[in-house]
Amino acid sequence: MNIFRFAGDMTHLISILVLLLKIYATKSCSGISLKTQELYALVFVTRYLDLFTDYISLYNTMMKLVFITSSLAIVWCMRGHRVVRRTYDKEIDTFRHYFLVLGCFVLALILHEKFTIQEVLWAFSIYLEAIAIIPQLVLLQRSGNVDNLTGQYVFFLGAYRAFYVLNWIYRYFTEARFSRWIACISGLVQTALYADFFYYYFMSWKNNSKLQLPA
């Protein structure tokens, strides 16, 4: 465990808490993409299959369980909660996310570190997580105005990946056998997708104004 990974885990956890706060405090999921949340649920379910085979530490196990259960809970709220589901922006959350799933699965079959079910699904989850934010960013651009909690959720989610890129760079220089090149490249791609959002988030913070994204 290094400081960059810990910071990444904490910012990821904060992003989830902010999203849960928005949903449960306001009873609204307006501005949140169900497509992105479904992709994240699929990411964590396929990545953490090693829960049944490998034990690393209590911290590692607890974080995996938190990410799986929270992602499934968010999807359930947006689909099944009788109040929250009425606020879902179905008309503008129309990105065809199943194409992302199919493309990432094919890529995982071609580019992986070991040809085993667990390793192929791990690669699939890494590729999918790198682009899972796309439906959310598209929804925010279509809606224009971004409420405070939604903006903070996306910001912390982007910060989490940025810290993990630093974590991988640190491990590359400090671990003799670190070879997770798939994670490194995918992390860089994912962080780059947030660049435009980070710019407008910083400008809104600097000018003390409401966050707005260009259509």
From TrEMBL:
Highest taxon of the lineage: Eukaryota
Listed GO MF terms: ER retention sequence binding
UniProt-annotated location(s): Endoplasmic reticulum membrane
Membrane-traversing stretches: 56-77, 98-115, 121-141, 153-173, 179-202
GO biological process terms held by the UniProt record: protein retention in ER lumen; protein transport; vesicle-mediated transport
Membrane topology of this protein: Multi-pass membrane protein
Key words of the record: Endoplasmic reticulum, ER-Golgi transport, Membrane, Protein transport, Receptor, Transmembrane, Transmembrane helix, Transport
GO cellular component, one term: endoplasmic reticulum membrane
Protein family (similarity comment): Belongs to the ERD2 family.
Entry protein name: ER lumen protein-retaining receptor
